[in-house]
Fold Nucleoside-diphosphate-sugar epimerase.
Amino acid sequence: MDTKVLVIGANGQLGSVLTKELQKKYTIENVIASDLRQNEEYKGIFEIIDATNKNRIQEVVERYKITQIYHLAAILSAKGEETPLATWDINMKTLFNVLEVSRENNIDKVFFPSSIAVFGEGAPLDNTPDNAYLNPATVYGISKAAGENWAQYYFLRYGLDVRSIRYPGVIGYQSLPGGGTTDYAVDIYHKAVLEEEFECFLKQDTMLPMIFMDDAIRATIELMEAPKDSITVRTSYNIAGISFSPEEVVSEIRKLYPDFKVNYKPDFRQEIASRWPKSIDDASAKKEWGWQPRYDLKDITEIMIEKLQKKYK
Ligand code: AKB
């Protein structure tokens, strides 16, 4: 039987890029993109799905005989703090709907993205291991930590093959993030290329784990392709790209834009960032499914600037 993929949250930062990569892999007819709103620019099959509505997910799964679901819809760390209870409801309800529809329809594989936001003060800040203590301080982090455990529960209890990665901040030129604490690391490149001043909501020395979009997408597909019995972590895998602080990105950018100006105005997102790891230990992902990042800060900066220069020309 053909692999038929449903991507929920396909208009988002990761979803919009992942969907195209999945189309390359499985062909355009075998990938169904979905989100709350139609994406006029999208080339391929698109369905409007509000993932809080289980029946709607069921309809699409039945109609296209879906075999894999990537559930990318969620409210992120900074945005989630505006409405904590609504964020919990949305992040959990959508996950339960996906897990239940997947169980009821014998879906082959499910992808659930987790995040470095699952870590809090109880975890070491440097080289944080997969199995560190989880006491997240944002509602987004709490929902991801709970989600990871539910992913494992569905695997152990029902044999549902749910796979998950804890993403660091994702940096790409193709799409914009929305509502995250790591978003500055994308916005800063847009401002540099537009030759505008950048106001940074984190302190200059705030080190956070980040990953280039191409690495993040490749990691996702590699994990989903890995043989089932090579996967021992059924909560979520740490993956690391690189770690850097705002002042380090600024100094890379200034190699190309020497007059680039930045003001540091830390806000509530500084509090969130200061509880997150500075760097991640991803030894299990490397050992079990061969994960290896390819891009460092210099590569990322060169590619971001080159691509955004073309975009804004
Ligand atoms: C956020 O900043 O909330 C996200 C994440 C690290 O999960 N980018």
